[in-house]
Every structure is written in C-alpha cells, then in structure tokens.
TrEMBL record:
Domain Amidohydrolase-related: 83-311
Official protein name in the record: Amidohydrolase family protein
Pfam families referenced in this protein's UniProt entry, alphabetically: Amidohydro_2
Organism of this sequence: Lutispora saccharofermentans
Key word RNA-binding present: no
Keywords: Lyase
InterPro entries: ACMSD (IPR032465), Amidohydro-rel (IPR006680), Metal_Hydrolase (IPR032466)
Domain of life of the native organism: Bacteria
Lyase is among the record's keywords: yes
C-alpha cells in the first residue's frame, strides 16, 4: 500500500489572533468571501509562484489564508483530509507563541498520524527555552520548526543558534519558513509583530555556511515567490551541502521534476503546508512528475521523510 508523509502541515491558529480551534469542530469561523486564491493556485496545478499583483489581491490572499487556518486546522478536518487523500502521516509544525508543541503532541496521542515538531518559545529566558526544548524531545518531538516572519526573528539570530545546535547535533530535522510572504494587512495591529524580510533566502545561505552538516529543510524549497528553488540549489551544489532537503508545498509537477534533478531523488519530499494546500492536488502533481518511477515516487512520498525523522514504522 502507498505510504505518504506530508512534511509540512499546521494544526491550530498559527496567527497572532490565536483562536482556540485545534480541538474544535469546524464551522466556528467561515470565510465570508467566495474567492480563495489558494484554491485558484491549486487548480492551476501550482504552475505559478504564490505571488499577487497588487495590495488588493494581497489582502484577499491574507484573508483566505487566515480563514483556511481557522476553518480547517483542527484535528477533525485534518483527520478527514488524511482519510480522503490517503496521507499516512502529517508532520505538525507549531509556531510559538500561537501554536505549541503541546497541541501537536496531544493531537498525536489522539491520532498517531500526527508527527509532532516543537518550536522555541522566545519569550522565555535562554536557559528555560532550551530546557523546554529538551523536555519536548524527551516527550516525543521529532524535529524543530522556526517561523522567522511570524516569530519576528532572523534564523541566523544568536537566539536561534542554541536550538538549531541542539537538534542538529542529535541528527534531527530543522525546518523554518522561507519566502518573503505577508501575513497581515497594513491596518492589522499584528503587522508590527512580524517582519516579512526575515523570509529572504540570504539568511539560509548564512545559516548553511555556519551549519553545513545539519539536516536542514528550508520550507517551500527556499520560498514560493519565484526563483528561490534554483538559487538554493546553486548554493547547495557550489558548497557541497549534503543534508539540505526541500519540500514541495505550493509546487507543481514541473517543479518536482526540477527539484529531483537539482537536489537528487533522496533529498526532495512531499508537503502541502496544509491547510493552505488541499493535498489531493499535491498528490496528483507528484504522480504526474514521478509516476513512471515507483522507487523515486516512494522516496518522495515517504522514504526520505521517514529517514530524516528516524521513524521505525
Ligand atoms: Zn507553513
């Protein structure tokens, strides 16, 4: 039977509105507007980057993203999408202070298909932040997630360094958001709590220079605004980095083929950034890209992620 690990998903409200939705049935917050640019992108087969022409379109995109989280990032809708699409496991990535390891862990106890990651709590003093991460690993955290934009911190900041070293030295995967994406409209009270420039790929180049051997997964293949995948591949090739992996959320068949060519079939993984992608389209794109090569498809869907997650199932 086909096995699929989705390497990038979210549970709960990752945004600063911090709605308590992770364990509630959907329907609490409904999208008031019919047009959903994420759906539009999906229907195109992810044949274009996740960028919009103007502020108005950007506001529509921001709203749609928030409503996707509020309506779908709960254990019920997420469980249903796994049933429907045949996804075996979802790596659940918390973003502190809005969603926590505890939510991902609780979800994994209720439904073992959730694979919990943890995220540093930068509100704690360094020593406590590190003690918490060590405790999370003991409790079952399988990797580290940082969101430089939403958490308002450069991935190369010295406060990120100790968590990255902790997971890196344990040969555990480290993933962080990449891509210069807006999360808040100009009039939002939360805009000042985020810094979209922290999604730029330059930070990744600096990080990889410092930690060339750790298992690092810059999310969205380095970013989904256009051109990041190729730039990342060039840096990886030039410097001979062996442990940089890419996941293909928001990317279609052509990019999957290209990524396998650029990074090799052992370094590319299936991901949806659920609930921002709706999973079945991502699966179709993978079949289109790699369907002729069952070994490469199995590596893409399952084996590469299972290896770096040290899963024994
Ligand atoms: Zn994400």
């Amino acid at each position: 039977m086909r096995r699929i690990i989705d390497f990038h998903t979210h549970l709960g409200d990752i945004f600063h509105e911090n709605k308590s939705i992770a364990f509630k049935r959907p329907g609490i917050v409904k999208h008031p507007d019919g047009f959903d640019p994420f759906e539009d992108l999906e229907q195109s087969g992810f044949t274009r980057p996740l960028i919009v022409p103007d502020i108005e379109a950007q506001n529509v995109l921001i709203d749609a993203g928030q409503y996707r989280i509020w309506d779908r990032a709960n254990i019920f809708t997420t469980g249903e999408i796994m049933d429907k699409t045949g996804i075996s496991y979802m790596v659940s990535m918390p973003i502190m202070p809005n969603t926590s390891f505890e939510e991902a862990l609780a979800a994994s106890k209720l439904d073992p298909r959730f694979i919990p990651f943890t995220c540093p709590d930068f509100d704690l003093p360094d020593e406590q932040m590190m003690a918490k991460l060590k405790k999370d690993i003991a409790l079952g955290a399988k990797g580290l997630k940082i969101h430089p934009i939403i958490q308002n911190i450069e991935i190369t900041d010295q406060r990120c360094e100790a968590p990255i070293k902790l997971f890196g030295e344990l040969d555990m995967p480290i993933s962080y958001h990449c891509g210069v994406n807006d999360y808040y409209k100009a009039d939002s009270p939360y805009l000042s709590l985020t810094n979209l420039n922290y999604g730029a790929l330059d930070y990744t180049f600096k990080l990889l220079k410092k930690f060339p051997d750790y298992v690092i997964i810059p999310a969205h293949g380095g970013g989904s605004c256009g051109g990041e995948l190729e730039a990342l591949a060039e840096a990886v090739k030039k410097n001979g980095y062996k442990n940089v992996y890419v996941e293909m959320s928001h990317r279609g068949a052509a990019d999957i083929v290209k990524s396998v060519e650029l990074f090799g079939e052992d370094r590319v993984m299936f991901a949806t950034d659920w609930p921002f992608d709706t999973c079945d389209c991502n699966i179709k794109c993978a079949e289109e890209a790699l369907g002729g090569d069952p070994v490469a498809l199995d590596k893409y869907f399952y084996r590469n992620a299972a290896r770096i997650l040290h899963l024994n199932f």
